[in-house]
What does this fold into?
Amino acid sequence: MRAPEPALMRLRPLPAGNGIHRVRLDGGRHAVLKRRADAPPDFFAAEVRGYAALRASASVLTPVVFACETDFLLIEDLGETRPSTAFWPAAAHALAQLHATHARDFGFAADGWCGDGAQDNTPDHDGHRFFAERRLLPQMHRAHAAGLLDRGDCARIERLCSRLDALVPQQPPGLVHGDLWTANLHCCADGTPALIDAGAVHHGWAEADLAMLILFGTPPPAFFSAYAQCAPLRADWRERAPLYNLYHLLNHLNLFGGGYLPRVRNALKRYE
It folds into this structure.
C-alpha cells in the first residue's frame, strides 16, 4: 500500500506521543498516523494482519487500515470518549464472540509483536506446550541473557512450565487480542467498543486475554458478569491470572528493565 501524500494531511500529536499523530486527510477524513523510523521490518504489518483477523471474526469493531509501510501505519481515527455503563456489557459480548472464534491450533499464520516484544506464533495443537515454548521460555531466555533473571528465577520458570497441564485447564484455541490491557479495549467517540494495537493477535487461551485486562487496571464487575452470560468462564479463572500475566511481566522486564522483577518473582511464588 502506498503512503498518502504528506500535503494531504494536517498533523496533530496525540497525547500518547511516540510518533502517534491524529491527521486530517484530503476531503476531511480523520486518521491516526503511527510512525517509527526504527520499527522492525514486520512490525506494522503484524498489526495489519491482526486487524484483518479481528475483522474476519465479525465480533468487534477495529479501525480501517488506509496505508502501511515498514516505518508507518495509517488507520481510521475512531475518536474516543469515556466509557458509559452500556459500554462494558457491549465490550464483554464482543470479546466473548471473539474468543469463540476457534482454530485447530494455537498460534497464528505469522509471528507478531506484543508491544516491542517479538512474539513467536508457530502453531501447536497443545496449548500448554505453546504457552511454555512460545511465550514463557523465550522471554525467560532473553531476560537471563540480559542479566535480568538469575539461575534460580529461570529454574522456577522451568518448573512452572513443566506443571502447566496441571495448573491450566484444557481450553480451545480461541482468537485473542494478545495485548489486551485496558487501554487497548477502546471506547470510540460514539461509545462503541473497539480493539486497537492488534500486533499480538493469535489463537490462544481466552482466560489469558481476560487476565491481562486485570493486570494494569480492570474493567468493572459488570463487564465480567456480561462475559460469563455468553461464554464459558470458570469461577476460578482469576486464580490463574498471575500465571498468564507472567508472560506480560517478563516481556515488560525485557523491554523496560528490572523494575518489573519483583512482580515477576511474586507471580512465581504463587505457584511454588
Q: What stands out?
A: The chain has two domains: 6-76, 87-269.
